[in-house]
Amino acid sequence: MSKREKNIKEKIVRAVNKNIRSSPRKINLILRHIKGKKADIAIRDLDFARQRIAKDIQKTVKSAVANAENNYQFDIDSLYVKEAYVGKGLVMKRFRPRAKGRASSIKKPFSNVTIVLSENVKKESEHGTKS
Question: Of 3.50.50.60, 3.40.50.1970, 3.90.470.10, 3.20.20.70, which CATH number belongs to 3-119?
Answer without folding.
Answer: 3.90.470.10
